[in-house]
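Supplementary Note 3. Input sequence used for the single-chain structure prediction.
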Amino acid sequence: MKKNYVYADNAATTPMSEAAVKAMLPWLTEEFGNPSSMYSLAAKPQTALATAREAVAAVIGADPAEIFFTSGGTESDNWALRGAAYGAEKKGRHIITSAIEHHAVLEPLEQLEREGFELTVLKPDAFGRIDPEAVRAAIRPDTCLCSIMTANNEVGTIQPIAEIGAICREFGVTFHTDAVQAMGHIPVDVEDMQVDLLSASAHKFNGPKGVGFLYVRRGTRLKNLIHGGGQEKRRRSGTENVGGIMAMATALTEAVANMREEYIRLSAMRDRLIAGVLQMPETVLTGHPTERLPGIASFSIRYIEGESIILSLDIAGIAASSGSACSTASLDPSHVLTSMGLSHEEAHGSLRLSLGRYNTEEDVDRILQALPPIVEKLRAMSPVWKSKK
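The predicted structure, written as discrete structure tokens, is reproduced below.
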């Protein structure tokens, strides 16, 4: 990272912790054996995978046999959705989701719709929350699957997953949650949440990119997504990324051990950031004011483009985002913000500042010093702003 550079885009990715790096390295060098092999060089990698599976399971209140390692959140989401939809299609072909899901959920579901499944997409309220009773009302006798994210990646709103899970269980509907943003930052317990499938990705909690996991409740019907060598108990083929998996387990264990302290620290910095940014005129907070992830502060800064703010902040030595990092190639306004009721113009002025483990109070000071003059300068060039004054 550049010297004196403020990184405030932890919702996009996080730097690996020292402990995670240390846990990863031996499996890339002296302990490089393929865990599927029969010779002695494979013994330690085999044991390592079992240890990592136990560690991940312990964090979310699962059985180790219910944890399957993947290449990340996108694969986990795709496997959960396609696997569960076809695994439960004898019950029906109706699926429920929300309009604020990550594209890794929405696009597989749109593909399933093209394949003959029927999709009900629930709209959130103005704070980005899904009403559990809306889920209840949407369930039909042929509903086979429901997928609602644990917390939103753009605005940070936390969903009432336990209530939604209880409703899905009442009606025998398989329930998946994308917990990619939540994992390691708020408590995640699969029994309390009453979920059948849960996706996670290591690089969101100071682990490496390219590794994640899918929790599959015992007894859940799930078709395989990747076929080949029969790894992961013949459920997910492909040689396991032992180093990445060990780093992920280490990072997750570390994050959960420090979660309470970090939650308090990050929430305080987030709230100070929110208070400072909202002092600028025509600026509104997006997402729920209290039921939000500890590190995410998101705004609509009216009458200027979010991309211009991001580029100007970068010149000032600050990394931020105008929404999901997976959507930066698109010129369309955020589907999350428009589904919450913001106009296209308001959505185009989005700014997401996401704090993480290595951010400090001095970083917040830097952001609050740099942002107001940037906004003032950009608005001075905006004919829309001039017409409003």
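The longest helix spans residues 361-380. The CA atoms of residues 35 and 107 lie 33 Å apart.
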